[in-house]
Amino acid sequence: MTTWTAICRLDDILPLGARRVARPQGVAVAVFRSADGRVFALLDRCPHKGGPLSQGIVLGDSVACPLHNWTIGLADGCARSPDEGCTPAFACKLEGGQVFLDADELASKALDLPAPVAGPCSRAGA
Q1: Where residue 42 sits, what CATH number does that domain have?
Q2: Element (H, E) at 104
Q3: CA distances from 112 to 22, 67, 108 (A)
Q4: Is residue 114 part of a domain?
Q5: Alpha-carbon distance 24 to 15, whole Å?
Q6: Which residues are registered as beta bridge partners of 39?
Q7: CA count, 13 A, side-chain hemisphere, 96
Q8: Which band of pLDDT confidence, cut at 50, 70 and 90, is reported for residue 114?
Q9: Which domain holds residue 61?
Q10: Is residue 125 assigned to a domain?
Q11: Phi, psi of 105 (to 5 degrees)
C-alpha cells in the first residue's frame, strides 16, 4: 500500500513550471506541472551532466535541461533521441487540488546518486 505525502497545492506550481522538494538525504525531487495541469516528478538531476531539471523549461510532456538543452521526458525521466540516459521518476498524484508524492520513494529512491556540482570544483592538491 502506498503512503502519500502532501507536497503542495497544484496552484503553488505555475503552469509549465516546477517546484523543488528537498529530501533529508539524496538529491531533491522536481515536481513539474504541464500546461493542462498534470503533475510529474523526477529526480532534480539531468542524466547527462547533472543539471537541475527544476530550472529547465517545460515543453509539453518534457523538460529541457538548463545546462545543455537535453530533452527529458516527464513521465519516464528518459532523454529523447538522439541523447541517451534516464533520471529516476517518482510516483505522484493530484487529488483535490493537492499534489502528493510516494513517501517510501522519497525516503529511499536514488539516494546513491551524487548531487549536481555547479561551478568550479576544487581538486585535492591543486
Answers
A1: 2.102.10.10
A2: helix 103-108
A3: 15, 22, 9
A4: no
A5: 27
A6: 33
A7: 3
A8: confident
A9: 4-108
A10: no
A11: -65, -40
Inside any domain, residue 78: yes
For the chain, the domain total comes to 1
CB atoms within 10 A of CB 17: 14
pLDDT, tens digit (0-9, with 9 covering 90-100), for 47-92: 998 899 999 999 999 999 999 999 999 999 999 999 999 999 999 9
Residue 118 falls inside a structural domain: no
Question: Which DSSP string do the residues of 31-77 spell out, in sequence order?
Answer: EEE-TTS-EEEEESS-TTT---GGGSEEETTEEE-TTT--EEETTT-
pLDDT for res 117: 61
- pTM here is 0.88
Q: Over range 11-38, report the average pLDDT.
A: 95
Task: Please report, to the nearest 10 degrees, the dihedral formed by the alpha carbons of residues 56, 91, 45, 34 taken in order.
Answer: 0
Q: Which three cell numbers stand for residue 44?
A: 532534480
